[in-house]
Amino acid sequence: MPQSLPVTAETIRLSDARGQRTRCLLYALAAALAVISWQAATVHFNYSGNWTALFMTGDVRLIPPELAAETYRFHGSTGYDGQFYRYVAHAPWFRADWFTYFDSPRLRYRRILVPTLAWLLAAGQDQRIDAVYIGLIIGWIFLGAYWLGLFAVEEGHSPAWGLAFLLLPATLTSIDRMTVDVALAALFVAFLRYAKKQAQGKPAGAGLYLVLALVPLVRDTGALLIAAQCGYDLSGKRWRRAAAFATAILPTAAWYACVWKYLPSVSAHSDRLYFLPSWLFKYPAIGIFLELFRPAVYRFVPWLNRTLQFADALALCGFLAVIAMGVWSLRRRPWDVEQWTILCFLALVLATSTPRFWAQVYSYARPFSPLILLAALGPLRRRAWWALAPMSAMALRVAIQMTPQAAGILRGLL
C-alpha cells in the first residue's frame, strides 16, 4: 500500500487556505447569480426582454442612429450615465459623428477602462458589445465579492463578508444603471489586499502597481488611491517606493491628454469642468448640510413624497455617520494606508460642496463607496455590527428607487 504523507502544521494551513479560497469563490458566485437573476427578471417582466433598458437611455436626448433600433428608451427622461458609457463601448476610438450624443464627451471618455474592456472582449463586434458590457459588470461584482471575502479571511473573519460587496452603493447603482463605479469598488478591495501585504513585507508590489495604474482609468477619483499610497510611503521615508508608485498615474495622464486633444469641447464651461468639476468648492464643508435641510421635491401622492424625503434624509445621515467614523479612525498612530485613503476621501468630501450633488444617493454615494467601506472596516474588525447601519441606510434608499421594478416582477410572477 502507498505510504501516506505525514500531516504537518504547514499542510493543514495550506489545506485550510484552499478551503477558505473555495468558500470565497462560492460566495462570490452566489452574489453574481443573485445579480443575474434580478436583472433577468426585471428585463423580462418590466422591459419586454430588452436588455438595453439596463443602460437607462432617455428619449429626451438623441442617440446614435446605429443603436436606435434596439435601444429601450425611458419616456420623458434624460437617462443616466450608463447610456454614455455604452456609447463609449461601441466607439472607444473617438467617432467624430457620435460626439453630439454625449452630455460631455471628454468627461465620459476619460473613464475608459470598462467600456474598452467590453469592446475588446466583444472583439469590436457591435451586436455583442451590450451583452459583454452587462456581463463585465457582473464580472466585477464577482471579483469584488471574491476579493472582499479573501480580505475578510485574511483578517480572521468569515468569507461570507464577501456578500457585503452587494451593499455598496457603487455596486447597487451599477446593477441598476450600468455605471462603471462597481469596477472602481472592486479594484479598491484589491488595493486594500495588496497594500496590506506590501506593508507586511510580502511580495505585492507588481499587483499593487497594476491596480493603481488601472483604477484612475475607471473613474477620476481612483487617483486618490495613488495619492494615499504615496502619502503612506512618504510618511515612512520610503522615497524610492513613493516615486515608483507615483508613476502609476502616467497612463491616465497620457490618456487624458489624448482625450483633450482629439475630443471636441462642448462649451467653455465644460472645459473648466475637465479639470475642476462644478460641484467643487461652492460651499466648502457645508453643502451637505444645506441639502439635508432642503428636501427634494417629488411629484407623487403625499405619503410617497414623505417616504422618499425621509429615505433621502436617512441616507444622507448615514453618510454623515460615515464621515464621523472616518474622522474617528484617524486618531490611531501611526497611520497606515487605510487611514491615508480615508484622509484623501475626506478631503474630497469637504471640497464636494454644491448642495445639489448631495440631493440623490445615486450621485454622492457612488464615488464615495471606498470611504463607506473603509469607515465600516474598523468597527467590523471588532465585530461591531452597527458599523453596517450607515451603509444599509444608503442601500435602502437605492432599494426604494428599485421598488417599481420589484413590483413589476411580482405582478408578472403572480
Q: How far from one another are the termini?
A: 61 Å
Gross geometry: globular
> How many helices?
20
Question: How do the SSEs run, as a string of H and E?
Answer: HEHEHHHHHHHHHHHHHHHHHH
Largest sheet: 2 strands, parallel
Poorly predicted runs: none
If you compute it from the alpha carbons, what radius of gyration comes out, rounded to the nearest whole angstrom? Answer: 22 Å
Strand order, biggest sheet?
Answer: 1-2
Strand content: under 5%
In helices, the fraction of residues equals 55-70%
Number of domains: 1
Instruction: Find the structural class using helix and strand composition.
Output: mainly alpha
Mean pLDDT: 88
Extended strand count: 2
Per-chain topology:
Elements: H1 9-46, E1 57-58, H2 65-68, E2 73-74, H3 81-90, H4 105-110, H5 113-121, H6 126-154, H7 169-177, H8 181-199, H9 205-218, H10 223-235, H11 239-246, H12 250-262, H13 268-275, H14 287-292, H15 302-329, H16 337-351, H17 361-364, H18 369-381, H19 388-401, H20 403-413
Parallel strand pairs: 1-2
